[in-house]
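A further point concerns the way the authors explain their paired sequence and structure data. Showing the layout once, in full, would remove most of the difficulty. For illustration, here is how one protein appears when written out as sequence plus structure tokens:
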Amino acid sequence: MADAIHEQIKEYYGVTLQSSDDLKTNACCCSSAPPRYVKDVLPLIKDEIKKQFYGCGSPIPMGLSGCTALDLGCGTGRDVYILSKLVGERGHVYGVDMTKEQIDVAIRCQQEQAEIFGYKQPNTSFHLGYIEDLKSLGIEDDSVDVVTSNCVINLSPFKEQIFTEVYRVLKEGGELCFSDVFADRRLPDEIKNDPVMRGECMGGAMYLEDFRRLMYRCGFITYYMVEKTLIQPHDFEIARLVGDIKFYSCTVRAFKVKGLEDREEDYGHSAVYLGTMEENRRYFDFDETCRFIKNKPLGVSRNVAAILKTSRMKNHFTVTGEGETHRGLFGEIALQLNPTQYDKTQKISIKTLNDEMKRYDIPEFMDKVKSIDKLYAKPKLTTMQVNVGYRCNLSCTHCFLECGPERTEMMTKETMDFCLRAFKTGGYEVMDITGGSPEMNPNLGYFIDEASKLGKVIVRTNLTILKNEKYAHFIDVYMRNKVRIVCSLPYYNKKVVEKQRGSCVFDPAIEILRKLNAIGYGKKDELQLSLVYNTDGPYLPPNEIMLENTYRKVLKNEYDIEFTDLIVIGNVPIGRFGQELKCQGKLGSYLKLQSENFNEDNLPGVMCRDQINVDYDGSLYDCEYYHVLGIKPMGEKNIADIADKPLTQREIPTCAVCYSCTAGYGSSCGGNLSHG
């Protein structure tokens, strides 16, 4: 049976598939963009090699200079040659594959690739053989620093033998990093034995719990999930066969390090990334939950501490901690085993934030401020920000308002009229309309038409709503009123965007941006098109100018899209994002990160000083964040109160979320507050 499976796979990859276009699912297609250090190498690799690449992830780690690497199931050698460039001329890379047609391509290109990289001779070796039997290919015990594999191990009927062999050839401290297909349950025989399902990497998918047990038996006591993505079959017959079974493309890393435990235990260790890996000097991602920012201490489990001190990463990290007193299970794992500790449905309140500040010894916001004793709004405000409703066609993970299709709160036409009167009375210059999806308010067209007679209008849209025929006419409304369109596009990469906003949202957003470009938005001075970037985790937003340059380059080159400017906004630890941080045990550490990076130079430009926020029911707030937290302003409480008289200059109360606006480069509805 095993030999028959091998022959099926050889036939499928050597004859049936001539390119990735012949695949019937996206299981063997890399859905996420590779990291920059991999992407930079790809143009240097011959098209003949890249044509028959069938990977489901990017399992090539950082810090490989001078290493010996081994790629299992190397095919035509794409990942081998990426590794070849990253290990450098002093390193060496082995490639193993059982498909002669593909190995022949890899060998044929060997000398030319070495010359492209500027090497005197190839630093690669290719072997025709089985990844289950590395010994017969001459790969010795304790000889390899890193073993990689990209969507291949699932194809083998001898998985335990593979992992046993990998453990044998790895040096102490060596790493296995591989991408493959996993399932949420054990597969029925009709899927396992289907030749197409097996060839497309789903028939041999490992049940995650069985994989954990298998790794343990082979010597890998624990492993770390780097990335996990749901696989969507795009062939009807395959979708029918799969039914409700969920398949995932996962990138996993494991280490051959003595003394590791099967759970992540807390012994008070912390680690600092020194920023010395040339692939990324700003941060290092250990797994999907652990990002090391250069020179920022981060608490780690005893297992991770041991890995950092033993592996090739030992020269790139400083690890501290007494390591003797046991403090229980470490962070994320503890929460997984005790999920009732935090409730995802629990709202993030002022009390929640204050409790976390006390727990992490974070000073009150005004205790950090040296230049003023109290924070005041300007005597005359320029912007009225109006939230016209919480209903939205999306439910984005970063949405602090927790908008979604199920929300019903909507501003009435009467309240809009109060806003218009107050706008004129107060001499405001900008009407900033937000939501939810503002387009879902039935009176939005009226509101825009009237507001445009009084001043400049901004509408914040998620773009995808404009793909719906019911709301597509708003493009004409915006153009007619020369509305500045502020579009949510939290990244220029499809995988990252859909992680934040849900599946099937990136392509419609790109389509709408092209339509807006076609009528002049982003190209004419009077038709401004702003894009909005949101961070996707508990870290500070980057430099706006730097990121804008990257957005321009990628969107122009890959999608022929132009825009006016980029607005970079940091995530505030309230709403869905705050709940997720709380659930993960990261809320306090995120608040501490913000407080430690407080930048007083941002204080004059914080949005609360120059605008008033109006909620859907007419309630006034100093900012959108405060109406989520229920912090009332000092002075008038409702838009009706200022319809016929100017807003009284007010003192602005401060709290923990003020750090979100002032940390690092700062963050406001208009983007970074500083660029230095």
